[in-house]
């Protein structure tokens, strides 16, 4: 049998790439069909990482998305002005200490003899225990949610300046102690938010915290 015989159908194999004969794709490469797709002419090329939609106005940024310190207004929610902070403080003071003084006043009114003096003492003790418990609970709420009852009523919230997260119970307690710095110089620290760029007291600056406006219904 001759491989050069033209009458032999097995004699010659057409070389690959010869016109009229389709080429076979290499093994492991999926076949391609149709024409290569092109981007629309009016499509704008995209570069870099995909952008994230900015948070809605008034919503506090998530952790790690807060703008750098020293850049107020760059995505930071509106800062709480001094009047709102004073109002929230007075409301918290009324909630914490008001019932205690009411019970103590009631006890003083009924204390006419030894038996009623015992009742007055019990009422005063109840009032003091209430004040202690409510003060701790308010501190816990402020540290874990950013809002005491007074802050929630007026629509403000306490957060870390660096990333916008809540400060936690421990730091909320430290911040309360740091208010000592606000009062040692003729209480000038409490007035500092009136002209400070970030509306911070001395305690806020030491603890790196800010007080912002939030939705009252949130």
Strand-residue fraction? under 5%
Shape: elongated
Largest sheet: 2 strands, antiparallel
* Broad structural category: mainly alpha
Secondary structure: number of strands: 2
Q: Could you give the order of the helices and strands?
A: HHHEHHHHE
Widest β-sheet, arrangement of strands: 1-2
Work out the helicity level: 40-55%
Overall pLDDT: 79
User: Uncertain runs with pLDDT below 50, 5 residues or more?
Assistant: 56-73
Q: What value does the Rg take, in angstroms?
A: 37 Å
Please report the number of helical segments: 7
Query: How many angstroms separate the termini?
Result: 93 Å
Structure summarized in a few sentences:
This protein has 218 residues and is mostly helical.
Walk me through what this model shows.
This protein has helices at residues 82-110, 114-145, 149-154, 168-178, 180-184, 188-191, 202-207, and strands at residues 156-160, 209-213. It has 218 residues and is mostly helical. Helix 2 (114-145) packs across helix 4 (168-178). Mean pLDDT is 79; it is low at 56-73.
What are the main properties of this structure?
two-stranded antiparallel sheet, single chain, 43% helix, elongated, mainly alpha, 218 residues
């Amino acid at each position: 049998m001759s491989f050069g015989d033209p009458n032999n159908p097995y004699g010659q194999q057409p070389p690959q790439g010869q016109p009229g004969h389709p080429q076979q794709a290499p093994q492991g490469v999926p076949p391609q069909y149709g024409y290569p797709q092109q981007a629309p002419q009016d499509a704008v090329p995209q570069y870099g990482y995909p952008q994230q939609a900015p948070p809605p106005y008034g919503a506090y940024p998530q952790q790690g998305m807060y703008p750098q310190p020293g850049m107020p207004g760059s995505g930071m929610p509106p800062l709480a002005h001094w009047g709102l902070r004073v109002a929230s403080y007075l409301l918290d003071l009324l909630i914490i200490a008001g019932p205690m003084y009411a019970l103590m006043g009631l006890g003083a009114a009924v204390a006419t003899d030894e038996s009623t003096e015992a009742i007055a003492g019990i009422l005063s003790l109840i009032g003091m225990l209430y004040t202690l418990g409510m003060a701790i609970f308010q501190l816990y709420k402020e540290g874990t949610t950013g809002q005491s009852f007074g802050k929630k009523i007026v629509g403000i919230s306490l957060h870390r300046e660096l990333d916008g997260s809540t400060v936690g119970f421990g730091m909320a307690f430290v911040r309360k102690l740091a208010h000592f710095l606000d009062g040692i110089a003729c209480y000038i620290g409490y007035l500092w938010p009136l002209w400070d760029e970030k509306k911070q007291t001395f305690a806020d600056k030491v603890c790196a915290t800010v007080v912002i406006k939030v939705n009252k219904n949130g």
